[in-house]
Amino acid sequence: MSTHILFDFDGTLVDSLDAAFTAFRQIGPEFGCAPLSRERLERLRGMHALEVVHALGVPMYRLPQLATRMRRAMRADLMETAPIEGIGEVLETLLQRGHRLGILSSNARASVREYVRRHRLPGLDAVIGGTGLFGKAGALRRQARSQGIAPRRLVYVGDELRDLEAARDARVRFAAVAWGYTPLKSLATGGPDFQCRHPRDLLSIDVERP
Ligand SMILES: O=C(O)COP(=O)(O)O
Questions:
Q1: Which InterPro entries does the entry link to (predicted)?
Q2: Of 21, 70, 133, which is best to mutate to test ligand 1, by the most ligand atoms within 8 angstroms of its C-beta?
Q3: What pLDDT, in 10s, does the model give residues 123-181?
Q4: Structural domain tally of the chain?
Q5: Ligand 1 atom, smallest distance to 160 CA
Q6: Same domain, residue pair 103 and 11
Q7: ipTM
Q8: Does residue 107 form part of some domain?
Q9: Does 186 lie in the same domain as 116?
């Protein structure tokens, strides 16, 4: 039987970290954040998104507004950024093997769909977007329910600790990727079901588990 594989977007299908960094340097100060250096960014990458928000001094009530402003500021750069190298071929192979693919992202659905179309990423027409930064667990649960499948038959592929946490909460399997925002060694502390150092490692995540 095939597995439903849902992909996170930013960091997992496209390396948007530079675009995020540039946008934050512009917008962060409006939210009372100190200017961000590359060195500090590197230190923040190992942390959970909530810890990052705290470390940057963003009040929680302003987070949705900051995230929306960031997404808008990043959009043009993002559209010009190529997908992670090798991901297109891997998606193609997963499709040929009969897997059902999709995207589940806290980024805006319209931007993600536009990106998939422009960069011709195969099999990713189903896009769930705008989940809220910390709303992915509920979205994963709803997805399993609406597809009529047990959560364990879903795999979420992501690059951040909030992705891993959401998959755990929803009892969905999680594949951690090494090429995203959060280093694999930080993701490994959360005990992901699969660790992918290269996109082709995604081809072995269909292993059935009891
Ligand atoms: O909230 C964002 O824009 C980041 O989106 P992601 O869930 O695809 O990482």
A1: HAD-like_hydrolase_sf (IPR050155), HAD-like_sf (IPR036412), HAD_2 (IPR041492), HAD_sf (IPR023214), PGP-like_dom2 (IPR023198)
A2: 133
A3: 999 999 999 999 999 999 999 999 999 999 999 999 999 999 999 999 999 999 999 99
A4: 2
A5: 9
A6: yes
A7: 0.97
A8: yes
A9: yes
